[in-house]
Amino acid sequence: MQPAVIQALDTWEQYWRQTQAAAITALRTAFPRLDDRPRYVGCDDIRLEYEDGCGGGRVCLGDEGRVSVEFDQVPNGVIAGAVDEVRFPYLDYAEQPLCEAPPGTYVYKCEGSGGQFEFVLGAGGHGQVVISFAAVPDVVAVLDALERAFTHHEADMTQQ
Length: 160
Description:
- Helices cover 39% and strands 29% of the residues.
- By secondary structure, it is of the alpha+beta class.
- Helix 1 (3-30) packs parallel to helix 3 (136-159) and helix 2 packs across helix 3.
């Protein structure tokens, strides 16, 4: 390769690493419960995880700059509160705000970014948040809303 091309690629790689670091900072600021986890062998995704009394799961930032989230055992009220706060433009199968919805799976597919947001309200009072291939700002908005909903839920639990 020509020296100018090598230098251009090095510059791109430097900025890409800075962009990844900024994305991780934004994700962790929105959801401070996240901790670093080692990368899998053969996988370059950056992984963050959380585990506490309100569920657990992981957030992965992929090589292409997209984010995936898998949270399990999240209280339904936390999921519903966060989703209702974000106000997705159209949530499949939701006829009303999620705080009034029955257990089930509610999905939003973003045509602009290609991201998919799936929220499962479980029959046992706990559900899942599964986000696939979403843009960093969209995931940060959901994580920020989840953090506020968790904080509200935990305050309610300590008052009981």
